[in-house]
Design a protein that fits this description.
By secondary structure, this protein is mostly helical. It has 23 helices and no strands. Helix 11 (200-207) packs parallel to helix 19 (385-395) and helix 20 (401-413) packs antiparallel against helix 23.
Length: 464
């Protein structure tokens, strides 16, 4: 009970909790067996994450274990040196950062699941399929929609929706499916880079208070360039003609679907207002927005029962509207949420050992901020951009605001260079299996790299 009260107190007053441990020395363990062991554990865990598709081992499992083991070694060594509270204070700080991210994402995922259940995205997909657009038109439409939907919804959900359209209309043209999937991944990642809600990395930067909400829109033009350059080149290699028009019946949006879209926009506005005007963490605005959805869900259930009671049809022919908000919460991407926990705690442990400070001194001190931030984007194509960005935020290098915007851009769009570089790319390799592969994406990597380089130059020109 005492430990629970201490945790509650530390989460309520983190600054006091941190101050209480500030008198204890932080040890440099980068050349100690504890540091080497932690590095080996992290490398093994992340190798298993990279091999997730081959091993069919959920990515959260190895990083959860790695985070626990790393902090066990740290805490045991500090206790042996007569400093039992140093590790405790540090891990509470990392856990608080994770808690803010966790509840923010949980609300966003709940809204997306509610919109999926109300057929909002299916209706959009069916409308696009039924319009009879040409292959080139669909290539641009799906890419542009991915670019503009991902700043509000996450880039993973956006990519999956647009890929469903491409698969529905392009089943006779494998080349069209592959190229459109690449375009969707690039568009979704680029669109997510200029919004705090578009990607986990931008959300982390916003919640850290390094870039303000309105300042993210300084990245709009560079993000457009990142998307347009490869799309413009790729369009000349698309198949000609029109796909066969679908005769399938359009999916109707269920009752309240568009209202939920409006409530999601209102929730985003609430989170922004909490941060900008009340100087409260955005997560509290998101949790308030969850109340909007829960109350509207109550209305949907009650009105569904009312419609059932007043219907003249036999009970067996009436479908009751069982909208359950807790079902939407249960369907959140729990593997992703636990993966974030493992990454934040594991990387935080490496930072506490001293590795991130050492890395920061080298890449930002020796190479310079611009080169380092460009390399961060390239690295995020190989390693997931979340641990990369969290490491940069933990290192907190001393660099001007334009460079913080640059690393926000590169970490967001750098993942487009390879199919494994972003959640959107990995998901589409599964959804469009046999059409969109690692090598089909790699074929167009030089073109995507042109967009990456062009977006960096445009950003430095406009915002520098």
């Amino acid at each position: 009970m005492k430990q629970l009260l201490l945790l509650f107190f530390a989460m309520l007053f983190p600054s006091i909790a941190l101050a209480s441990g500030s008198s204890e020395e932080v040890l440099d363990l980068t050349s100690h067996w504890v540091g080497y062991t932690a590095l080996v554990i992290f490398v093994i865990a992340y190798t298993l994450v990279i091999l997730e598709e081959k091993l069919h081992l959920r990515k959260s499992k190895p990083v959860l274990l790695a985070a626990g083991l790393i902090w066990i070694f740290i805490a045991a060594y500090y206790s042996s040196q007569g400093m039992p509270h140093s590790a405790e204070v540090a891990i509470r700080h990392n856990f608080l950062e994770y808690a803010e991210l966790f509840f923010f994402l949980l609300v966003a995922m709940t809204y997306i699941n509610a919109m999926l259940e109300r057929n909002v995205f299916e209706a959009l997909r069916d409308w696009l399929v039924a319009k009879g657009f040409s292959y080139k038109s669909l290539f641009w439409l799906t890419g542009i929609l991915a670019f503009f939907i991902s700043p509000i919804a996450d880039n993973l959900t956006t990519a999956l929706i647009m890929c469903a359209v491409v698969l529905a209309v392009g089943k006779d043209e494998p080349k069209f499916i592959a190229m459109s999937c690449i375009n969707i991944v690039v568009g979704a990642n680029a669109g997510g880079a200029f919004s705090p809600f578009g990607d986990i990395t931008t959300l982390m930067v916003w919640q850290k208070g390094i870039v303000q909400f309105a300042e993210f829109f300084d990245l709009f033009v560079p993000s457009v360039v990142n998307f347009i350059v490869p799309a413009f080149i790729m369009q000349f290699f698309l198949p000609t003609g029109n796909p066969a028009t679908s005769t399938a019946e359009l999916t109707p949006i269920k009752k309240g679907g568009l209202v939920i879209v409006g409530l999601f926009i209102l929730t985003i506005a609430t989170a922004v207002s909490f941060h900008n005007f009340l100087h409260l963490p955005p997560v509290f605005g998101m949790m308030t927005g969850l109340a909007y959805l829960k109350i509207f869900g109550y209305y949907l259930k009650k009105s569904g029962h009312s419609d059932l009671d007043q219907s003249d049809m036999p009970t067996s022919n009436v479908i009751e509207d069982n909208f359950d908000i807790f079902d939407k919460i249960a369907k959140a991407e729990w593997d992703t949420l636990f993966f974030f926990y493992g990454v934040i705690l594991a990387v935080g442990g490496l930072g506490f050992i001293g590795y991130l400070g050492m890395t920061s001194e080298f890449i930002y001190g020796e190479l310079g901020a611009t080169t380092a931030n460009v390399l961060v984007g390239v690295l995020s194509a190989i390693v997931d951009n979340i641990p990369v960005m969290f490491a940069v935020l933990t290192m907190n290098p001393d660099m001007p605001h334009v460079q913080w915007l640059l690393v926000t851009l590169t970490a967001g769009v750098g993942g487009s260079l390879l199919s494994i570089g972003s959640a959107a790319g990995v998901a589409l390799m599964g959804q469009a299996r046999g059409y969109y592969t690692f090598f089909s994406h790699l074929k167009w990597t030089p073109v995507i790299a042109l967009g990456y380089i062009a977006s960096i130059y445009v950003h430095l020109w406009i915002n520098g």
